[in-house]
Amino acid sequence: MTLLWVITAAALVTALVAWNQARRTAKRLEQLSQMYWELKYQHGELRVQLQRATGDLPGQPVPPAPQPGAGQSFIPLTSLKR
What predicted TM-score, i.e. pTM, was given to this entire model? Predict the structure, then answer.
């Protein structure tokens, strides 16, 4: 009978330790989640400030890449080996 009480007490202590650890982990997860969203907001604000400082506005079209000149063309390596 005493063995059952010892096992019960050990199980209760183990459950309390696990519950305490779960509470601390949940609290840490909440802190990390809040820090993530704050950082994401700050990143967006800094990106907007940088775009304003450099004159790049998000609504402007991106200029097309320059086309290669007549002297620059793609030649596959297989044709060079012949």
Answer: 0.55
